[in-house]
Amino acid sequence: xxxxxxxxxxxxxxxxxxxxxxxxxxxxxxxxxxxxxxxxxxxxxxxxxxxxxxxxxxxxxxxxxxxxxxxxxxxxxxxxxxxxxxxxxxxxxxxxxxxxxxxxxxxxxxxxxxxxxxxxxxxxxxxxxxxxxxxxxxxxxxxxxxxxxxxxxxxxxxxxxxxxxxxxxxxxxxxxxxxxxxxxxxxxxxxxxxxxxxxxxxxxxxxxxxxxxxxxxxxxxxxxxxxxxxxxxxxxxxxxxxxxxxxxxxxxxxxxxxxxxxxxxxxxxxxxxxxxxxxxxxxx
Length: 284
What we know:
The protein contains ten helices and twelve strands. By secondary structure, it is an alpha/beta fold.
């Protein structure tokens, strides 16, 4: 990693901001153009930026991840999550750039009723998941030098995550109702960044599940967070079906990080530990 130049995309998002913070602290050379200046869906713009900056590694944090809206904005979802990766992958292959990309647990249908591993066959049940899987397939069909990390229930500094939604709910409601049968792995942006950088240092290549350790329902996730924040709201568990959502979501999409942990020789912190660190370092 020493002497390598890193280009980060999607700099308006929480994951990119964690990369910028941590890489900056480590005094690593990186470029993080504003999304308005580096639109990954604009091939001419992407090519010009890469030609100018000449990065050794591209870390793609850009994503269309609005699950509900993706059903009615399918063209945009595929444009960001799939088509743009054709441009990035082809340029990386031509110029010998290592490519890092983030996918999602929503490539699975939730029917396994056990932890998903990298060898399980994806079967997305909504447009968001389908567009992310298509992006994976494009990268794997184009490049040899890549890392694809499937992540889940990502939270960090910013407003585009479940914990910020919980914060908004508890401000307005004494009683908060949360789904108790929707299960995955809450995953902290800081842990995603640190594990990604270690994987790059170790020379890992391929597809991995990158999550914190353990699993939780949305209810358990929210209640643990509320307790750590020392709020006194009442949290009531309900089935996901009671919220009458317009988009199907996998009920159990928890992924195992065993392969990644073994290949790196590390234990990735639990989601509970991640929330505790998040609460210490962030004010809403």
